[in-house]
Automatic annotation (TrEMBL):
BP GO annotations: cell wall organization; peptidoglycan biosynthetic process; proteolysis; regulation of cell shape
The name this protein goes by in its record: D-alanyl-D-alanine carboxypeptidase
Residues annotated to bind substrate: 241
InterPro entries cross-referenced by the UniProt entry: Beta-lactam/transpept-like, Peptidase_S11, Peptidase_S11_N
Domain of life: Bacteria
Family statement drawn from the similarity comment of this UniProt entry: Belongs to the peptidase S11 family.
One GO MF term: serine-type D-Ala-D-Ala carboxypeptidase activity
Stretches assigned to the Peptidase S11 D-alanyl-D-alanine carboxypeptidase A N-terminal domain: 17-271
Active site: 52, 55, 116
Length: 397
């Protein structure tokens, strides 16, 4: 089905002024994970270093491989000597791995998510693709399939290539993974839409990991989780991933349930003193407070309501909610047919389509347009000359 063009208008009620936010970061955004509606964004197209936020893509592919039955959480993996050696360097990792021991996929998976273990991510990538170079190619293909252009992905962990052995990356030793806030938003929506159970891991405030002959407990790097120092009651974060390198600075992708939906926050390279280890989380708190103070998730279309777009009628089968400024009038919203899977579902001529509001503040994530090509089967005659003779005489009588 052909879709109508979507306009990036940002018209508001005449008496509504868009509130301003100083996020103190190079780039970022906050968006509704369910609909893809962006409430706020800053320099969202700028490609910047992302550090261990890379592991969102890495661990998505690991999750996918497990769900497809390629291996199980109980499988045991042994690190290479190089991967084990990396865990002796405090600046590169935090959980100790020994080359003469094996570790379960489950323990490695949790270590990569909760405390961002680089060697654990590498071991899992090797399990999926046979080598880290092949896994990076898989990462590149995945984000390209999601419509992300110009992604710079060279390794599975997010470290600078100069910190790695040559067989741990593609590109040169000076390359570093880079994505934009828009890119990360698209990635996170795909990941959480497909595997929301990932949050069962990322919501854990602590990691119990086997070290030597004992079990050691590590704190999650997400300091917004309940029990950690940046937690705020009423803002119940349950994910997702930190990222830190010299080039990336301190970044964080967060997510939390709020007002019967799920919001995703992105803060890239939080600004502030180098010794300040909370600045990315304060910038994240600014985003969610900005949302709570200025916006409301309003019912804009009722169940079974009919709306008209370009003389065509569309009927909803459930209430439609959109984030709007608290003093904005619902009647000012305009709608159009979506070019992709974002927005809300309506029915036109017994077919379901997606509709979006075209004049909200931040618009929607730049999802790839899904084009379904219909295969046209032409009827061809492959009958033999003998079949044609028989058919000829059949038609005579």
């Amino acid at each position: 089905m052909l879709t109508l063009p979507v306009f990036a208008s940002t018209v508001h009620a005449e008496d509504t002024a868009t509130p301003q936010l100083e996020m103190n970061a190079t780039a970022g955004m906050i968006f509704d994970e369910h609909t893809g509606q962006v409430v706020y964004k800053k320099d969202a197209d700028e490609k910047v270093a992302i550090g261990s936020i890379t592991k969102i893509v890495t661990l998505y592919l690991v999750t996918k491989a497990i769900k497809e039955g390629k291996f199980t959480e109980k499988d045991m993996l042994r690190p290479t000597q190089a991967q084990a050696d990396m865990t002796q360097k405090n600046e590169l990792t935090n959980v100790r791995l020994d080359a003469d021991k094996t570790y379960s996929v489950k323990d490695l998976y949790e270590a990569a998510w909760i405390v961002s273990s680089n060697s654990a991510a590498m071991m899992l990538a090797d399990k999926v693709a046979g080598s880290q170079g092949e896994f990076v190619k898989l990462m590149r293909k995945t984000v390209k399939d999601w419509g992300i252009k110009g992604a710079e992905l060279y390794n599975v962990s997010g470290l600078n290539n100069s910190d790695l052995q040559p067989d741990m990356y593609l590109g040169t030793d000076q390359d570093e993974n880079k994505l934009s806030a828009n890119d990360i938003g698209v990635i996170v929506k795909h990941v959480l839409d497909e595997y929301p159970e990932i949050l069962q891991t990322t919501s854990k405030a602590k990691l119990d990991f086997p070290v030597g002959n004992e079990t050691k407990t590590y704190d999650s790097l997400n300091l917004l989780l309940k029990g950690h120092r940046d937690y705020q009651e009423g803002y119940e974060f349950d994910g997702l991933k930190t990222g830190t390198t010299d080039a990336a600075g301190e970044s964080f992708v967060g997510t939390l349930p709020i007002q019967d939906t799920r919001m995703v926050t992105i803060v890239l390279n939080a600004q502030g003193e180098k010794e300040d280890r909370d600045k990315r989380f304060r910038s994240t708190q600014k985003l969610v407070h900005f949302l709570a103070d200025n916006y409301e998730r309003k019912e804009v279309i009722k169940k079974n309501q009919t709306i008209t777009i370009n003389n065509k009628k569309y009927k909803t089968y459930e209430p439609v909610y959109t984030w709007l400024l608290k003093n904005n009038n619902v009647e000012n919203l305009r709608y159009n047919v979506s070019r992709n899977d974002l927005g809300f579902t309506a029915i036109h001529n017994k077919k379901t389509v997606k509709l979006i509001a075209t004049n909200t503040d931040g618009g929607y994530l730049p999802y790839k347009q899904t084009i379904v090509k219909k295969a046209i089967h032409k009827e061809t005659n492959h009958k033999s000359w003998w079949d044609q003779i028989i058919e000829f005489f059949q038609h005579l009588f």
